[in-house]
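Regression report. Comparing outputs from two consecutive submissions.

Submission 1:
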Amino acid sequence: KVPSHNRVAFPRFCLPMSVQIDKTLFWSRLKKIFDGWAKGGKPWGGGADAVIVNYGTQDEEEIYSRTAAIHLFLIGYEFPETVLLFTEKKLTVLCSKSKAKYLTPLGTSNRGLSLEVIIRDKADKDAKNFQALVKKMKSSNQGTLLGWLPKDKQKGKFITRWSQVWEKCGMQTASVSLGFGRVISVKDTAAQKCVEVAARFTTNVFKKSLQRSIENACDEGKTISHQKLSENTAKCFDRPSKYDPRLKDNEDLDVCYDPLIMSGGEYDLRPSATNDDNNLDFGEKSAIICKLGSRYKQYCSNVARTIFIDATGQMEKNYRVLIDIYLACQKIIKHGTTISNIHKTAVGVIKRSNKKLLTHFVGCGFGMGLEYRESNLLLNDKNQQILKDGHVLNFSIGFENLKEGSKKYAMQIADTMLVGKNEHKLLTQVKRAWKEIAFSLNDDDDDDEEEEDNIVTSSHYEERRKRREQEVELHRQQRLKDKEQRELAKKKQEELLRRVAKSNIDSAFNKEKAFDYKKICSYKSVSEFPKHTKSNQLFVDVKAESILVPIFKQLVPFHVSTIRSATKTEEGRYTVLRINFAAPDMPFKNRNDYIQAVPQDKHFVQELSFKSTGESKGLETIYFQIQALRKKMKDKIKSDEDKKSIVIQKELKVIKGTSVSKLRDLSVRPAVTRRKSTGILEAHQNGLRFINSRDGIKVDIIYENMKHVVFQRSEKSTEVRLHFELVNPIMSGKKKTNYMQFYIEVVSSSQDLGAGSRWHDADGLMEEQEERRRRKKYNKLFYDFSQKIQKLAGRFGDLNIEEPYRQLMFRGVPHREQVELIPTSDSLVALEDKPPFVLTLNEVDVAVLERVMFGLREFDLTFVFKDYKKNPVRITAIPKQKLDQVRQWLHTSEILNYESRQAANWKAIMQNVRDDVKAFAQRGAWDFFFKEQDDESGDDLVDDASEFEPDDDEPDDEELESDSSEVNEDDEESDYDDEDEEEEGEDWEELEVKAREQDRRKRRDDIEEDRRRPKKRRRR
C-alpha cells in the first residue's frame, strides 16, 4: 500500500455523461490478454482453462491492485462489483445495468473474440447468473483448472456470495497474476503517451517547486518540516497548467504518493516510505532526499534526487560511485536485455569502486505503469525476464545506512525510463551531476589571499567546464531532436504514399473548371441592339453587360467577360482608349474561365484602340463606364460563388425558458450590420445564436460546424474574446464569413498621454482597481460560458475549448501588420489581426524556417498544408530571439520542420509537387527540397534573400494606399485582375522605336539651346 495525496486515486465509477470506452483500444488489448494466455506456462497457472477477475466494493486505502489495473487496462475505468470471466475466445462480464449500457456499444465480436454482458439480477441475488458463470467455466477447454488473483482480497456482499459459489465448483485454482502483469507491463502507444505526460509534469514540478523550495529554505535558513514541504508540493497538482500548459485541469492528474522529503539521519528508501514530522536538516554533512511521483490517466512516473549540504570528500566519492552505476546500467537498458544483467552490472561497478558499499546498495528499481510497482518487473539478480519495447522502468539506485563521523546519511537517484528497440528514452530529465546537487552554506571570512586566488582560478576553470558540458548537452539534445525529425519525415512520407495509393491525388490538380462558353451571349439578334446608338461611337450597354465597338462603321458587341483590361492615356491633344481582349496566347497569369473553355483554334481580336481629341469627353466617359461594368461583373461572380459555397446548416434547436446560458452586450466581428452594435449570445441544444440588439438580426452557429473555439483572456490586451473558426462558411449579414468573434472591451484602448501616470492620484488608483475588477469579471463570465458550450456540444462530438499559451507567444506578420501569434493545443492564432489568423496544426504537412542565417535579425516561417491544392501560409518578420522557442514548439507539436538559409520559391515548389505527387513522395517528399546536401540541386527553387519578392496574394503599394473602407477582407484574385490593366498593347520593338525618337529630339533641342546661349568672354 502506498499513501496518496488524494485518496480517490483511481477514477471511481463516473457519472454516465463522462464514461467513454475506446472501442478500438478495448478489442486490441483484449486480444493481447488472450494471446498472452494462449502461451500458457507458469505465469498463467500452468495452463488455466478459465480465468476470473473478481472486483468487489472499492477500498479507499487500497490504491494499487492488480484487479484495478486490469479494469483500467481493458476498459479505462474501474467497475466495482463486477466479475470478468475469461473462457475460450470469450469474455463474459457480470455487472449492473448502469455499467452494462457502456459495454454494449463495444459490440459482441471482434478480432476472433466475443463479448457477452450479463446484467445482475437482484431478485434472486444473482443465483442464476452465478450458476451460468460456473457452467461457462467448466465448459471452457478442459474445465479443470481455474486461474484467479488470490493476493487481491475483495470485499462486499455481492463478491462474497459469488466466492461461495465458485469456490465449491470443484475446479482446482492457480494464480494468474504474473500472466496479467506481463501483458499489462508492455505499454502500447496510447499508454506511452500517458506516461510521457506524467513524466513531463513530474519533472517540471520537481524542478520548479520541490527542489526550488528546498534550496530556498537552505539559503534563507528557514525552519520547515518535511510534511509541510510535501503539502506545499502537492498543491501544485491543483494548478497543473502552471507547470504544463497542455494540462488544463487536474481531472486526469494525481500523485503516485505523497511527495517525500527525508533528511536528518532518518531515511527509508523503500517504495512504501512515508513522511515524518521532523524539520528539514540543512546542517553540515547533510543529505536531503526528495522524491516525487505523478500519474496521468493512472499511468505512473517517478523521479528522485539527493541534495548535499557541506558534504565531505568521502560523501562525494560515494555519490560518484552511484553516478557510475547509473551510467553503466543505462547503456544496457534496451529491448532484449535480461533484467538480471542490469543488477549484475550495478554490482560489478560497486566491486570495482568500493566493495564496502555492497552491503548498503538497495537495488535497481522496478517496472511502472498502471501500478506504481509492477511485481513482475523487479530489477533484481533473480529476474530472468527479458526487457521489451514498451516497458516503463522506475530505475532507482541508492545507498542507505551510510555514516560520516557520527552522522547517518543515505543517497538515491531515480528516473522514469521508457525501453525502446535500440535504446531507452529518459522521461524525467532532472540534473544529477555533483556540481548541480552539492551546496556549501559555510562562508569563511578569514581565508588567506592565496586561497582566494586559488578560488578565483578554480572558478574560471569551473566556468569553462560548465560551458563545455552545456555545449555537449545541447549537442546531445539536438541529435535527439534530429533523430525524431527523421522518423517523423519517414512517417509523413509513408502516409503520403498511402494517400496516393488510395486516391488519385494528381487528377484533382489537373481537373479543369466546367464552363460553358456558349452561355456568353450579348444579343440573340441585331434587333436587340439599343435604339439610340451611333455607328461611329462606342456604347456601353449595362443591361446586356456588353460593349458595342464601331468597326468599319458597324457596331460589333463584345461581352464584358472577354475584356482583359482597358487603359486610357493622353498623347498630346488626343485621348487614346485601348481595350485588351482575352486570347489563348496572352502572357498573363490569370487565364479566365472563358479562355480556358473556348476552342483554341478560333481567331481572336487581341486589342482595339480608339483616339479622339481631348476636347471631347466621350472616351473618358466610356472608360469609366467600362470599369464600372467590369467591377459590377466581378461582384456578381463573387456573390454567386459565395452563395454556392455556403453549406446549409441544420436548424437550431432552441432551449425555451430561463435556463438558457447567455452573454450580453457583446460586440461581434465581422459586423452583422453596417453600424457597430452589440448583442446577446445564447447557448442552445445544438448550437449558438447571436441576436443583434439594434434590429434583432439573428446569426446561428451549429456546434458541428465549429472547427476551433478559442477563449482568450484579457491579460495583455484590451478585450476578452471568444473566437469561433468554422468548418463551412456562413452568411453574416450579406457577407460570407468563415469565422465569428465575440468580444467585450474591458479596458479603454485609448489613453491621454499628457495626463501623466495614474499612480500619483487617488482617481488613478481607483481607475486601475476598476480595470482589474472588470478584467476578472469578464474573464470569468466568458470562461464559464465556454465551459457550458463544451458540455452542450459533448453530445455532438468532442469540442475542445482552446486557450492560447502566452508563454509561447512570438510576433510576426501573417497578413499585413505585425501581431502577436500565440499557439494553442490545436492551432496557432492571432485574434487581434484583421481578419483573425487561425492555423489548424492537424492540417499542416510541414513547416519551413526560412532566412535562418547569421547576420539577419528576423526569419520567416512557412506552413505547407496536407492538401497541396492550398497555397502555403507564410509568417514573416519573426524576431531572431524567438528562433529556439519556435523550434521547440514545432518539435513538441510533432510538426515536421526544416530550416533554409534563403527564402523558398513556393510557387515553383508547389507546382513541382502538384505536377506529380506520386513521384514527389517516392523521391523523399520534403527531404528532396530541404534536406541538407552537398550539391546545390535545389537552387532553382530557392530565391536569394536579398531579392525578396512578395507572394502573389500580397497587396502592392497601390492597394495599401487605398482607402481602408474600400478593402474587402474576403476578396480574392478574380479572373479579371486589375493588375492586368497596367499592361499595354504595344510590343517591345514599338516602345524602343519611340524611345530612340525621343532621345534624338532631346539632343536636337539641347544643341539649339546651346547655340542661342551667349558665350562668355575670357578675362585677360
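Submission 2:
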Amino acid sequence: MDSQTHKAHRPAQSGAKAEKKKASKGKGKEKQHGFNEKAFAPKSGRRADRQGRRTAERDQTRLHVPLVDRTPDDQPPPVIVAVVGPPGVGKTTLMKSLIRRYTKQTLNHIQGPVTVVSGKKKRITFIECNNDLNSMIDVGKIADLVLLMIDASYGFEMETFEFLNILQSHGFPKVIGVLTHLDLIKKAATLKDTKKTLKKRFWTEIYQGAKLFYLSGILNGRYPDAEILNLSRFISVMKFRPLVFRNTHPYMLADRFEDLTSREEVRQSKGKCDRTVTVYGYLRGTNYRLGTKVHVPGVGDLAVKSVQILGDPCPLPDAESEKRRKLSEKKKLLIHAPMSDVGGVIYDKDAVYINVPGNFTKGGIENPGEGEQMVLDLQDVRSTLEDQMTKSQIRLFGSSSQPLSVEAGPSTLRSQGDSDGENDEDEGYGDDDEEDDEDDSEDEAGLDSDDEAFSDFGEEDEMDASDRGRSAPRNVQRSMWSLSSQDRKRGDVEYADSDSDLGGEDDDDDPGPSRRFVRFDGDEEVDVQSDDDVEEDGPDDQDVPRWKVNLTGKAQAAFEDTTRSRRRRDWVKLIYNSTAPPETILGNGGAAEMSSSQGPSMDDDDFFTVAKHAPAKTEEVLDQTKEPVDPEELKEWENEELLDSIRNLFITGSSSQPTEGVDEYGEPYEDEEGQEEASGSGGEDEDEGDEGGDKPSISKDAAALAAKKAELKRKFDEQYDEPDSAKADFYTETKEAMARQQQLNRAEFEGVDPEARALIEGYRPGSYIRMELTNVPAEMVENFDPSYPIVVGGLLPAEERFGYVQVRIKRHRWFPKTLKTNDPLIFSLGWRRFQTVPIYSLDDHSIRMRMLKYTPEHMHCYATFYGPAALPNTGFCAFNALGRDTPGFRVSATGVVLDIDRSTRIVKKLKLTGVPFKIFKNTAFIKDMFSTALEVAKFEGANIRTVSGIRGQVKKALPKPDGAFRAAFEDKILMSDIVFLRAWYSIQPRKFYNPVTSLLLSDKERWEGMRLTGQVRREQGLKTPTDVNSIYKPVERPGRRFNPLRVPKKLQAALPYASKPKIMKPQHRQTYMQKRAVVLEPEEKKALALLQQVRALRKDQVARRREKQGERRAAHRKKVEKEEAKKSEKDKEKRKEYMRAAGMKSKREADASEGGRGNKRRRT
C-alpha cells in the first residue's frame, strides 16, 4: 500500500473556475497580461482602413429595420415550434423526446398542439406538420421556429424544398435543421462527407451559418438524451424577431375544438345544419377587437359571436413561487395537450370534464392522472355537504360552554329574490365563474362561523335596473341584502333543490312572523324573540337601551351613505358596455343612483314609502371643445383688486412690483439671499388677509420655471461638453422611441380592469381565450381531424372586401410548365388559400398594360385577378395543384401584392385584315375588314398598313358593299396586298373566387377546384372535337406570272443606243447553222482533243502561279505591317516626349506670369 502513487492535481486551465481564479489573483495587473492594442495594430494605413470598413459593414448588416413587438413582456404567448419533414423521418419521435425532456412525461399518442413550460418566462407549443401541402402552408404562416428534419441516409426530398419556398413567401421564421438516421451510415468517412454535403446544401437554402443538429440514433424509442438536451437548450434561448404580417394581424392556433349546437337541431336537420363551435387557444400577433371577422384556412370566413378570457391552462411560474434560478420540478410537469388528452382533464368556462377510460378500482392505478385523482378523491367522501352543515356547531362567544344548534323553522323568502339575482347577471356585476369558485371554496371551508353560514346568498345589489356599469373594481363581499328583512333578522336559511321549492311571501300557508328556536345541549327548546319583536316592544320595554333599538336599520342607512359617497362612475363601462340612451347616462344618473340606493332598504312592511324627489334635470352637456360658461362666474373678474393683483403677470402689466420668489424677468431667484428674501416676504404676507391666497400658485410656477431651466442647462452641457455622446445613431434613436411609446401605452392602461381594457383596445396577445364561431359548416365538425392544424386568423377591415388585386409574379424556376393566362391557379395570400383565374400582363413603356398569353422566362411580370384585398407588399405563393400525386415541384410561382383595385386597363392586340378590291393610284377601296358602316365610322382616321410595309389611313365608309371603306396610302398598293389594322382591345379578369375548403373533406388531401377542359376530357376519356377550319392543309401557291416589259416604239427611237432594249424576237424556224450536221474525221477528233488537253494544262499552271503570288503578297504585307507598328511606336514616344516638354514649358511660363508664387527653391 505504501508504493501506491496518486495522480498529481492539475488545475483547470480554462472554464469558469479558471477565469475566476485568474481574476482573483491578478487584480490590478490587467495592463501587464491584458490585450496590448499597440502590439496588434496594423502596419499599413490602407489595411487599417479596410479593417475599419469591414467592421462597420458587419455592424450594419447585423442591424435590421426596428419593428415594434406587440407581444406583451409580462405574459407572452407560448412560442410555436413546428416539426416539419417528409414521412418516416422521425417527427413524432423528436416531439416525444423533447416533451419528455421538458415535462418528464411520455406521450404515446400525440395529436394537435402540445404546450409545455420551458423556463421561468417562456413556454413552448410543439406542433407536428403532416406531409400535406395545406398543413405546410398553415404551419408556415404561424410557426416561430421550424425544426426541419432531413433523412441523412436519403438526402433532401421535394417536400423540404417546397416548404422552404412557402416560408420565404410568408415571412421567413427561424429554421433549425435536424439530421436523422445517421446510424444507417456505417463508414465514418461516408458519414463525414454526407454531413458536409448536406450542411452545404442547407446553408445554400437558408443562410450561411444556419444551425444544423445531428441525431445519431434511437434508444428506447427516443433520441439520445444528450443530443436532445443540446437541442432543447438552443430552443430555449432563441430570440425571435417580429414578422411584419403577424405583427399586424391577430391569430390563434386552436388547441381545443367543441361543437355547441343543440342535439335536437342536429337531429332534425339530419346533421346538415350550420353549427356553432368554440375554439380555444392562446391569442398571438396583435390585439383582437370583438366584432372583427376571422378566417379559418380550409373552412372560410366566419363571424365571431363572443370571446371570453379563460384561466391559463399552462401558466408561467410567478415570482413568489419561483425564487430560485432554476425551474422547480413541479412546474416542469405542466403540460397542456387537450387533443392528446393528457391527464384526462378538460377545463371549460363553467365545468371541468374528466375522462376516465374504462372501469377502474381505487387501488388499480399506480400513477393516476389529474382527472383520475379527482374521481378517486370524490369516492373517498363519506358525507354530503348538507350533512356537514347539520353537524356544524356555532358558538355565540368564545367562552360559551354549549354550542348553539339551529333548527329550521317556518321561513319565507322575499318574492323578488329570484328577480334580483337575474338583475345581477344582467348588470354584469358578478361573473358566474367567480361566484361558483367562491361558493366552492366556502363550502370546503366547512362554514364554521356565523358569517360563513349566510355567505351562500348573492352579492350586494348595488346597481339599479338602468345600465350604469360597475363603479369600481369588483370586491367580493358576501352579505344578506338580497334577503328580505325578515329573513335577515331571522338568520335561518332554507336550502332547496330549485327556485320553485322556496316559498314566496304570497303563499297561503305563511304562518306570519318567523320564530327562531334555539336548543342548548341537554335542555329543552327556548323561544328567542326575533328582531321584529324587539323593535315592536322596544319603546315599551324599559330594560332595552335606546342605542340597541333598530340596529339593522341604522347600519343599513350608514352603509348606504358611505357607498353613495364613495361610488364613482365608470365611464368606460357606461360608453362601451351599456345599452342605455345618452340622456339616461348624462342627465338622470343622480336619480338612478338615488333609486338604486333606496332599493335594498325597502322592507316588506314599509312597502308604501314617500319617494324622494329627484333633482331637477340639469342641462345636457354634450361632447364639446369649449367649456360651458356660467355668467355668474364672469362677474368675479369685475373686481379691480383681483385684476391689480395679477396685472404684473402679463406683458402689458407694470413690472414695478415683482412677484414674490420670482425676479422681474419672471425667473426664480437662484442665490441664497434671494431665497431668504422671498421666504421673508412670504412670511410677512401670511399675516395679511386676502393677499396670502395667491402664494401657493406663485411658488408652484417658480418651481416649474426652475425645473425647466435645469433641463435646458443639462441639455446644453451635454452638447457642449461631449457633442459626440449626445448624438445617437438612427437605429438606437428609433428603438428608444419605440420603448418610450410602449411604456406610455403600458402606463395608460395600468389601472384599467381587464374587461374594460378588452373593450377599448381588444383582447391582448398572450391571453388564453375561448372564441365562439357561428354558421360553421357541418362538414368541419363531422370530418374533424386533430392531426390537421386549425388556425384562426383575424382579418383587418380592408381584407374583408373583394376586388381586383394586382401582383408582381414570377414563375418558379423549378416548375416545369409555363403559366398561361386564364388558367386556374391556387394562391396562398394572407390567411387565405383560394383558387382564381389570373391575367398576366407587362408594362409597355409606361403607356399601356399589355396582356401576355404566357409568363416570360426568368422574368417578373404583372398578374391581375379577382379575390380578397390584401395589403401591399404581402407575399404569396401559387400552386397549380395541391394533391400529393402531382408529379414534380408543386410551387408554381411566387410574388408580392402591388395594389388593390388598380384603375389601369389591360389590353391585348387585335389585328383586323382586309383586301383591296379597287385601286386608284394612292387610293384604294378595302373590303372584308369591317362588317357595317358604323364600325368603319368608329375607326375613321386609324392607321393601317400593308404586309409589304406601305402605310395608310382609313378615310370614309362606302355605301356598298357593307363594311367597305376608302383608304389613302403613301404609295400605290397591289391587288395582292393584305391590309391590316392593329388595335388594342380592353379585357377584364373573370370574377372567380373559390376558397380551398380542405378541412371540410373526409380526405383532406383530395380537394379539387376548377379543372381545365383538357384535364376533364382526359379523365373522362373523351376525344378533342376537331374543327375543320383548324386542320393544317398543304398550302398550294400558284406561280406568279409577270407581264413582259413593253417599251413604246416612239420612246425606243428617242432613247440612246445604250438604253434601247436589245431584245430579239425569238425565231420560230431553225437557221442553216442549226440545221446542218458536222461530222469530224478521226484525225480532226485527235487534234481537237490535244488542243483541249493543252488548254487545261495552261489553265492549271496559271491558277498555281496566282496562288503562289498571293502567298508572297501576304508575307510581304505582314512584314510591312510589323515595320509600320514599330514606326508608330517610335512616333508615339517622340510625341509624348515633346508634349511633356511643352507642358513643363507652359507651366513655367504660367508660374512666371503669376509672379513666381508657389515655386520651389532650386538647389544651387
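Expected: both submissions complete independently.
Actual: both completed, but the second showed a warning that disappeared on reload.
Relevant detail on submission 2: The chain has 35 helices and 34 strands.
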